[in-house]
Write a structure and sequence with these properties.
alpha/beta; Rossmann fold; Phosphoglucose isomerase, C-terminal domain; five-stranded parallel beta sheet; 20 helices; binds 6-O-phosphono-beta-D-fructofuranose
Length: about 525
């Protein structure tokens, strides 16, 4: 199958994407419309037979069967023996979802209710700090316990009507110091977000926050809440059970923002808006389970990605939101996609015969245009681009600026596809240069074009739409993992560095010698210790 796709790739290598638009129905046929959103992949070199061959991958890998295994609570995270049920966190209709014959929904809905109750009290001032109503919420967490709520808090800024919300993740003391400098300990709520409650960065920052608060507040524990699967450890930290919001190990860290890990977001935007976010995710779940593959947005998003990465060999993918509030989306997707599908062996431990998931990176437009788009348009590598754009912004009276933003987004995908040939480039410089110099100058102005991109267009970045977009990307990762035979739900690749950091700590502290370390590491320790550590 992969060989068939590779030979298709060879046969279309010289074809210009724009020639595919000789078919007047191309745009409609090579798009998916669902849930009020439009995913347009017409500006790729995928034709109908290629699409059929890609869809065949789904059937070969029994993606439909695996999808139902996931939704029904089977332990599809096979290396850890766990179910994968973040979808239960947004299953607002509460229909039974069973893990080991136990319906998990009563627990999920009970925790959601407790979160809403707490969020309302914080927002209304019924829950206070020593100095009165809470003015600032500091979420301390890292990876999945940070990126989701931090990304969404930025995305949904127009919906914030609660206390200010801050996110601390890095063990670099600069991170927490900068945040705490703007907060009053007497009116700050600290939320320690950690699935395991052992992550060294988070626990170190939590202790720092506790010490900071302790200088002004007599009962610091009363201004702390915890989001974790480890109730025993949250108790040891001194956080009362009524402010501990638990979840189960079938929620992966990078899939966890729909449940307790979303508490800081819920406090910022309110429980009703948070429910709208959940409803968006739930709607995407229904779509993903029911839509035939060709009309299935997550499936087609995944297949287009695999065509570019595994078949054509484009190693990276740029995520380019023309929506400034999605500034953290690329970072969020880096964890979601690269921690999930950045694996070198398949589920059964065999080396993958193809590339794993791509490198994902990006920045909002139009900023990126003035930074790295040069390489995207004229560099030697092809970087498939994923544009996101809203039909409407939130800024009344500035609609003309939003239209300018849209024009820029559409212009980029058009420029990537069409490019500019040497004749056009010559015309651009004719009159300014002559002879050989004209030729030389013209060559610098050639855009090869034929560079693929997709665009996800949606009405407006409101909570429900954000929920749809995030669930769309989650399911894309699932489909890609299922086709590649990867376990998308473990992350052993983060372990080695953690273990070595623990072993290096006493060496950096000067308590142990660096003898026995490699020469480079020993030299760096020596330099850093000699210069201030
Ligand atoms: O929520 P925890 O347990 O603190 O983990 C934080 C992050 O660390 C990781 O386990 C690995 O870095 C991520 O998967 C996770 O989101």
């Amino acid at each position: 199958m992969w060989d068939d796709l590779k030979s298709r790739a060879d046969s279309v290598a010289e074809r210009r994407i724009e020639t595919l638009f000789e078919d007047a129905g191309r745009a409609r046929d090579f798009s998916v419309s669902a849930l009020g959103m439009l995913f347009d992949y017409a500006k790729t070199n995928i034709d109908a037979p290629t699409r059929d061959a890609l869809i065949a991958l789904l059937d070969k890998a029994d993606v439909a069967g695996r999808r139902e295994a996931m939704f029904s609570g089977a332990p599809i995270n096979e290396t850890e023996g766990r179910a994968v049920l973040h979808t239960a966190l947004r299953n607002l209709d509460g229909g039974a979802v069973t893990v080991e014959r136990q319906d998990v929904m009563p627990g999920v809905l009970d925790t959601l209710g407790r979160m809403e109750d707490f969020a309302r009290k914080v927002r209304s001032g019924a829950f206070t700090g020593q100095g009165g109503a809470i003015t600032d919420v500091v979420n301390i967490g890292i990876g999945g316990s940070d990126l989701g709520p931090a990304m969404a808090a930025t995305a949904l800024a127009p919906y914030h009507d609660g206390p200010r919300c801050h996110f601390v993740s890095n063990v670099d003391p600069a991170d927490i110091a900068d945040v705490l400098a703007s907060c009053d300990p007497e009116t700050t709520l600290v939320i320690v977000a950690s699935k395991t409650f052992t992550t060294i960065e988070t626990m170190t920052n939590a202790r720092t926050a506790k010490a900071w608060m302790g200088q002004a507040v007599s009962d610091t524990g009363a201004q702390f809440a915890a989001l974790s699967t480890a109730a025993d450890k949250t108790a040891d930290f001194g956080i009362a059970p009524e402010r501990v919001f638990g979840f189960e190990d079938w929620v992966g860290g990078r899939y966890s923002m729909w449940g307790p890990i979303g508490l800081s977001l819920m406090i910022a935007i309110g429980p009703e808006a948070f429910r709208a976010f959940l409803r968006g995710g739930e709607a995407m779940d229904r779509h993903f389970r029911a839509a035939p593959w060709q009309q299935n947005m997550p499936a087609m998003l995944a297949l287009v990605g695999m065509w570019h990465n595994q078949v054509l060999g484009h190693a990276t993918r740029a995520v380019l939101p023309y929506d400034n509030r999605l500034a953290r989306l690329p970072a969020y997707l880096q964890q979601l996609e690269m921690e999930s599908n950045g694996k070198r062996v398949s589920m059964d431990g065999e080396e993958l015969p193809y590339e794993s998931g791509p490198v994902v990176w990006g920045e909002p437009g139009t900023n990126g245009q003035h930074a790295f788009y040069q390489l995207i348009h004229q560099g030697t590598r092809v970087v498939p681009c994923e544009f996101l754009v809203a039909a409407e912004g939130h800024e009344e009276g500035l609609e003309h600026q939003h239209r300018l933003l849209i024009a820029n987004c559409l212009a980029q995908s058009e420029a990537l596809m069409k490019g500019r040939d040497l004749d056009e480039a010559r015309e651009k410089v004719a009159g300014k240069f002559e002879g050989d110099e004209l030729e030389r100058q013209a060559r610098h102005r050639v855009f090869p074009g034929n560079r693929p991109s997709t665009t996800l267009a949606y009405p407006k970045l409101d909570p429900e739409t954000l929920g749809k977009i995030i669930a769309l990307y989650e399911h894309r990762v699932f489909v890609e993992g299922a086709v590649l035979g990867i376990n998308s739900y473990d992350q052993w690749g983060v372990e080695l560095g953690k273990e070595l950091a623990t072993a290096l700590q006493p060496i950096v502290d000067g308590e142990e010698s660096a003898d026995g370390k490699d020469g480079s590491t020993a030299q760096l320790v020596g330099f850093l210790r000699a210069n201030g550590t």
